[in-house]
Amino acid sequence: MNTTPTHTEPHIARLFIYPIKSCAGIELPQARLTDTGLAHDRQFMLVDAQGRFVSQRELARMALIRTEIDSALLRVNAPGMAELVLTLDAPAEATATVVPVQLWGHNMPAFDVGAEVAAWFSAFLEQDGLRLVRFDPTHRRASDTHWTGDDTALNLFSDGFPLLVLSQSALDGLNRRLLAQGWPEAQLQRFRPNIVIDGVPEHEEDLAAELLVSADDSSHGPIHLRLVKPCPRCPIPNIDPDTAHSAPHVIDCLGTYRHDARVNGAVSFGMNAIIVASIGRTLRVGQALELDYGFA
């Protein structure tokens, strides 16, 4: 496959990671595939005093918390707050404070990042008892095999799958509808994708079985990403990532044309994906790709 696509050919247009679950993402020119998705994606998570994860669903101001990777450090900023600096490397297990946490009914151990960090998040989000936790790398959290079949797909603190793929044309189609209804365009960041593809028809990711991504190490063949489940949408896309204000028009608009029988009629937008035999390889913006529809 040609690795230098024209603007009309299918290609990777943008890449994102979200080091702290439900906080603002980081756009990257390239990202390494690990056994749990893109490196450092959803490595951290906020939990309440009972150890249950919290998100923009309850605390919309999480959208205003920005992160930046600086070598082995994660820099965290929010309006009116001093910068917080975290290390990306997990502590030695013997020195870590292990706490029980819960994410979508899954109980697991995690590493508590400490009281000073907890106080920072509690102050900005105006909720007592919050703790920031880091994923315990010795724990294995797998996606639902109803969707992945014989492939084991591991996750950190993502909702259920290691990757989320969205086409630019899908966003463009939504924005045409929003503008026709008198609403402003919705920012891509509302939908929290990892991989944005372009040069394909609207919602073509819904129809494909795999993305085959050209790579610099072409002697190993393309990178295989299997598209496994439509992404059902909660109210988070209604939250403006620039202001944290919420209005229902985005999900309401999607509800006029995006009910998906594969997820019991829920509104879907984007496809969850897993990595097939491509761990350790690198995705880059501009890489050409092919959509494999799985026809025998």
Task: Explain the overall architecture.
The chain has 296 residues and is mainly beta. It is globular and about 50 Å long. Strand 16 (259-260) and strand 17 (266-276) form a beta hairpin. The protein starts with 10 loop residues before the first strand and ends with a strand. It has one domain. It has helices spanning 115-125, 145-148, 168-180, 249-254, and strands at residues 11-17, 26-28, 30-34, 37-38, 44-47, 66-70, 73-77, 84-87, 98-103, 106-112, 131-135, 163-167, 195-198, 210-213, 223-232, 259-260, 266-276, 282-284, 289-292. Strands 1, 2, 12, 13, 14, 15, 16, 17 and 19 form a 9-stranded mixed β-sheet that branches. The longest helix is centred in the middle third of the chain and has 13 residues, at 168-180.
Keywords:
about 300 residues; mainly beta; nine-stranded mixed sheet; four-stranded antiparallel sheet; 4 helices
